[in-house]
Write a structure and sequence with these properties.
This protein is an alpha+beta fold. The chain folds into two domains: 3-97; 110-311, SMI1/KNR4-like, CATH 3.40.1580. Helix content is 36%, strand content 22%. The protein is built from nine helices and eleven strands. The strands form three sheets. The chain has a five-stranded antiparallel β-sheet, with helices on one face. A four-stranded antiparallel β-sheet has the order 2-1-3-4. A two-stranded antiparallel ribbon has the order 10-11. The two termini are 39 Å apart.
Length: 313
């Protein structure tokens, strides 16, 4: 019996001190935890060697049909495979014993879309107006200024994709780091190409491991806002979380051109979460100026030295 798995690893690019998260997928026929971790580790090391990256010490491994995950330590060579397997099993057993209830599947941001629609959210918000309102509410140095129009045009050209006016304006207005929505920090212009390349590298690696994987062209031909299994050049990353997921602006053709979706290597792309960046910012402003919460009432904003989010339950 073959079991699919996903491993999320910390990687460090040579000459760059910042760590980045990458998710790789694979499958294993044997059924022991040692087999799963061994195959995932071999895949991670092969990927790191191919793309000239160094593995960090920690990773997470999730198996299909399991809600929980394994935390793996020692990928940097500090532990043997048997030690990593033992530590992963012990850590998960201890974590499960501390829980009040089983851990559910990760909640996708797509739930925000249904919540916002139920309260009659506007389908069009002027981004420039919304951003100025947000700036007046949030004291954060990251939204004082952004990149120059010349730099934005240069990076847009390097992506090979025509950006929407909102995307261009977003990167001229902020330099990255603002947690605009729970768990996701906006990217600065300097991170766009790097994040794209991480996903392209992961896609290339998956293609080499699975010759039967559907071509990306099939997803590219679908209209904007359609779910996608593959990361496309038409996806412009604008925010990232700490699990390997990103928010992207979908520049494919269609009525929802310019919508905001979520993408991760392990889960693929969601349907449109917001029809535009302006509407996304408008939803955040609504929460900041009312008693409403995001993610089915689970997150409330806090304004101290910037914008943060706290879980209400």
């Amino acid at each position: 019996m073959t079991t699919n798995w996903r491993i999320t690893i910390n990687t460090i690019q040579e000459g760059v001190s910042q760590q980045r998260l990458v998710t790789l997928e694979g499958s294993t026929s044997p059924s022991t935890l040692r087999d799963f971790i061994g195959d995932a580790l071999a895949s991670a090391r092969a990927w790191a060697e191919k793309f000239g990256r160094t593995l960090g010490s920690n990773a997470t491994l999730q198996l299909d049909n399991e809600d929980d995950y394994y935390r793996i330590i020692g990928l940097d060579g500090s532990l043997s495979l048997d030690e990593m397997v033992e530590q992963a099993a012990l850590e998960r057993a201890h974590r499960q014993s501390q829980k009040q209830r089983p851990l559910g599947q990760p909640e996708r941001l797509v739930k925000w879309r249904a919540e916002a629609s139920s309260r009659g959210r506007a389908e069009s918000v002027d981004f420039a107006t919304a951003w100025q309102t947000l700036r007046g509410l949030v004291a954060d140095v990251s939204i004082d200024s952004g990149a120059s129009l010349q730099d934005v045009a240069r990076v847009e050209g390097e992506t090979g994709t025509r950006w929407t006016p909102e995307v261009r304006m977003l990167f001229t207005q902020q330099s990255g780091g603002l947690q605009l929505v729970p768990g996701f920090e906006l990217l600065g212009l300097d991170r766009v190409l790097e994040v794209q390349q991480l996903f392209f590298d992961a896609e290339e690696f998956v293609e080499e491991q699975d010759a039967e994987i559907p071509p990306a062209a099939a997803d590219a031909e679908r209209p904007a806002g359609s779910p996608a299994d593959r990361f496309l050049p038409q996806f412009i990353p604008i925010a990232e979380d700490n699990t390997g997921a990103v928010l992207v602006v979908d520049t494919r053709d269609g009525k929802l051109n310019g919508c905001v979706s979520e993408f991760s290597t392990s889960m693929g792309g969601s349907e449109a979460l917001w029809p535009s960046i302006g509407v996304m910012v408008g939803d955040v402003i609504t929460v900041l100026t009312s008693d409403e919460s995001l993610l089915q009432g689970k997150y409330r904003p806090e304004l101290r030295e910037g914008l943060t989010w706290s879980r209400t339950r």
